[in-house]
Write a structure and sequence with these properties.
This protein has 320 residues and is α/β, with parallel strands linked by helices. It has two domains: 28-154 and 253-319, 3-Layer(aba) Sandwich (Rossmann fold); 162-250, no CATH class. 37% of the residues lie in helices and 16% in strands. The protein is built from eleven helices and eight strands. The protein has helices spanning 2-19, 99-112, 125-137, 153-165, 169-181, 197-207, 209-212, 231-237, 278-287, 303-306, 308-319; strands at 28-34, 37-45, 49-53, 76-80, 118-123, 141-147, 266-271, 292-296. Strands 1-2-4-3-5-6-7-8 form an eight-stranded mixed β-sheet, with helices on both faces. The radius of gyration is 22 Å and the shape is globular.
């Protein structure tokens, strides 16, 4: 009898142990046709859908990983690469890269994947896109999360000028001289449709860096590698005159006076040393009635890198 019980316990133990852990989170990925543009998506996790849109404009969803993975325990995460970005289809005409077109792309993703009502999280430029989506389609939202973003290009440009003025004089002179000489069409043939390496190092590596990271700087951050992006899209939306002025078609982003129409539960997060400084987030909170603002200490623009625990707690509790 004792031998039989021992054998049964040995057989049952591995199954009991396995049952005490959550199941696996298989990844679903593919392409869907959104308004004639093939968009890449990646989805995993369990629970209500959380659709996540990235910044840049012209980056990809990759910079969110692995940082946002813990959210998959309570939500099904759906990452997309916006039109012209990452693995999604590039467009022949850069004029088709607009916030308005991307709003319709987000809606097409929601419908095509049969998501029903979703929570929407946007970071940086993605937060601009998330605001634009909420202003048109908030009936399809359960929650809105706006991370390190802005609601007015005019006010964002004023912040950039403050940051430029705060730089060491030699660095500021270097940046301004390169901008005055023109940032494109320089160097070798393969370099002519992007910023020069020296400008990327000066602007992104030295000028921006204190506003990107504070507590936990990414040791793998490389300002030149950061230039691996969709430059046609970036120039159409951001502009061609440098990092400290937005004068592409994003200049039309002026949501002041419109945000009051957003009624869905809204969380606004920002770092205390953020590139999109906290004053912008405070103004957004003032316009969106009932919204919650969280300012992360010792944090730049990459709040989920600098303060991962605080970020997950704030977003996770809000979504629950």
């Amino acid at each position: 009898m004792w031998l039989l019980l021992f054998l049964l316990s040995c057989i049952a133990a591995p199954f009991a142990l396995a049952a005490s852990y959550p199941g696996p989170y298989p990844i679903q990925e593919g392409f869907l046709d959104a308004n004639g543009v093939l968009l890449y998506y990646k989805a995993f996790g369990q629970g209500p859908p959380l659709l996540i849109v990235h910044g840049g404009p012209g980056a990809s969803h990759d910079y969110f990983l692995p940082h946002l993975i813990p959210l998959a325990r309570r939500n099904r995460l759906i990452f997309i690469d916006e039109r012209g970005s990452g693995k999604s289809e590039r467009l022949e005409n850069p004029a088709d890269y607009t916030v308005e077109a991307m709003v319709e792309d987000v809606e097409a993703v929601r419908v095509s994947l049969g998501l029903g009502k979703v929570a929407l999280l946007g970071h940086s430029y993605g937060g601009v896109l998330a605001q634009a989506y909420a202003l048109k389609y908030q009936q399809h939202l359960t929650h809105l999360v706006l991370c390190s973003t802005f609601h007015s290009t005019k006010k964002m440009n004023a912040v950039f000028q403050k940051q430029l003025a705060a730089m060491p004089a030699a660095l500021r002179q270097q940046i301004q001289e390169q901008e005055k000489a023109g940032l494109f069409g320089k160097g070798k043939g393969y370099q002519q449709n992007r910023y020069t390496d020296s400008y990327m190092i000066a602007a992104w590596g030295e000028g921006y860096f204190p506003y990107l990271y504070q507590k936990r700087p990414d040791a793998n951050y490389d300002p030149v590698a950061n230039g691996n992006m969709s430059w046609d899209l970036y120039r159409a939306m951001w502009g061609s005159h440098g990092e400290f002025v937005i004068d592409g078609n994003l200049a039309s982003v002026e949501y002041s006076g419109k945000l009051a129409s957003i009624k869905v539960p809204t969380l606004i997060t920002v770092g205390d040393h953020d590139e999109c400084e906290p004053s912008l987030s405070r103004e957004m909170q003032g316009e969106i009635k009932g919204s919650k603002l969280v300012i992360f200490p010792q944090s730049g623009h990459m709040t989920f890198v600098d303060q991962p625990g605080l970020f997950m707690k704030a977003v996770g509790e809000f979504l629950q």
